[in-house]
Inverse folding.
């Protein structure tokens, strides 16, 4: 296995484009993604040494040799498979397996890379023939000119954060179109649902059972609205300020931002010094491992990498909320989605299930009868850009698991560009 520095080697996360395939490191995720991707003759590759199911710890290894977040650790380019993370032998075995299997099939060269911004933090987009790197502004850990070299980008486009990873609140499509999760749009959608079911209750032709169900849904929507408004006040990412800043920044960079009701979440107070200690220990071990590997680089590159590590440490020291104050829990996250183009150039969109509908009591039967659901409102919001029949939702069961471990379906797979 080669450790290498190459200017074209370290970007991940793509806008909607044609792919060779998708790469997953968990069989539960691969199975469900493949069920949709195979309809478009796109395969999902998985190393044969990983386990069948999601286990206890998100994003970490378990006794069953499973790792959930492929997007965090693996980058694919046209001719390379790149691993980030130097402290875990299992990941190296996965990379070797990748080289022996899909690497040969797709002619990919396995590499390790440092420095590397972890997946989920940025998207590489083609806009009017320019390669633009869209990333959260806290990831400007190197000079912009250096980032352009590392990521083979013409322009660096930093935006404020609404969550710890950019792929939880932004989803680039194509031609510069970018979906942006907007809390006002979510509130408006909840109000539409509330008024819709309230209007149904005013009809005189409802059965007693329908009246009871619709009244229950109406009450739950009202609670969801109040809960969401309260959540906004305590969200450390300050969506009331930053959503508009992101919108304006995207326009400035030449993107077309599209506000959609993409997310519904709530905050849960936690106090877990044990979790904080574990996260910081893992972080420090990885930084030390990167320092060790950096010794194989030219001296000028070693200085850059040491500066990168120093800035990462400063950022972690500043963030005192890791596992201590508030955690964000999603009932809907449609922006954390896998997108690609089919053979006809149409966008395919694979995303997480609309758990909020179920929480509100909106069953598939009620949705079909009334047309009133959060799922339908989201589909309507993206209909000018993605055909309804090309939008697919993974199961509620898998969505529950991914949300519990603080991610979504996009986090679980890495794109292999054509």
């Amino acid at each position: 296995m080669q450790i290498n520095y190459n200017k074209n080697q370290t970007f991940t996360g793509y806008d909607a484009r044609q792919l060779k395939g998708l790469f997953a490191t968990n069989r539960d995720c691969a199975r469900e993604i493949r069920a949709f991707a195979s309809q478009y003759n796109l395969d999902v590759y998985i190393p044969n040494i990983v386990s069948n199911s999601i286990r206890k710890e998100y994003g970490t290894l378990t006794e069953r040799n499973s790792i959930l977040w492929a997007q965090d650790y693996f980058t694919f380019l046209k001719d390379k498979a790149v691993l980030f993370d130097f402290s875990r032998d299992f990941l190296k075995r996965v990379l070797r397996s990748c080289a022996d299997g899909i690497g040969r099939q797709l002619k990919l060269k396995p590499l390790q890379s440092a420095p590397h911004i972890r997946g989920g933090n940025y998207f590489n987009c083609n806009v009017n023939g320019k390669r633009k790197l869209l990333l959260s502004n806290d990831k400007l850990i190197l000079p912009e000119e250096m980032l352009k070299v590392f990521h083979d980008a013409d322009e660096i486009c930093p935006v404020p954060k609404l969550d710890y990873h950019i792929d939880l609140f932004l989803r680039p499509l194509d031609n510069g179109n970018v979906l942006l999760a907007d809390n006002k749009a979510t509130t408006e959608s909840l109000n539409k649902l509330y008024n819709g079911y309230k209007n149904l209750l005013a009809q005189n032709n409802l059965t007693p059972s329908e009246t009871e169900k619709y009244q229950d849904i109406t009450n739950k929507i009202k609670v969801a609205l109040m809960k969401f408004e309260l959540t906004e006040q305590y969200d450390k990412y300050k969506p009331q300020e930053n959503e508009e800043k992101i919108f304006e920044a995207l326009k400035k960079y030449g993107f077309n931002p599209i506000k959609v009701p993409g997310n519904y979440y709530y905050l849960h107070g936690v106090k877990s010094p044990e979790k904080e200690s574990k996260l910081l220990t893992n972080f420090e071990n990885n930084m030390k491992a990167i320092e060790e590997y950096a010794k194989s680089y030219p001296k000028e590159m070693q200085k850059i990498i040491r500066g990168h590590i120093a800035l990462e440490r400063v950022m972690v020291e500043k963030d005192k909320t890791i596992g201590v104050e508030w955690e964000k829990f999603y009932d809907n996250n449609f922006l954390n989605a896998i997108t690609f183009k089919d053979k006809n150039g149409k966008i395919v969109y694979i995303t997480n299930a609309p758990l909020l509908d179920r929480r509100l009591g909106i069953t598939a039967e009620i949705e079909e009868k009334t047309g009133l659901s959060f799922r339908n409102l989201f589909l309507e919001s993206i209909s000018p850009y993605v055909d309804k029949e090309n939008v697919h939702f993974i199961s509620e069961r898998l969505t529950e698991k991914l949300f519990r471990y603080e991610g979504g379906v996009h986090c679980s797979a890495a794109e292999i560009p054509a």
Summary: The first strand starts at residue 2 and ends at 3. Confidence is low (pLDDT under 50) at residues 1-12, 51-65, 318-325. The chain is about 40% helix and 20% strand. The two ends are 24 Å apart (CA to CA).
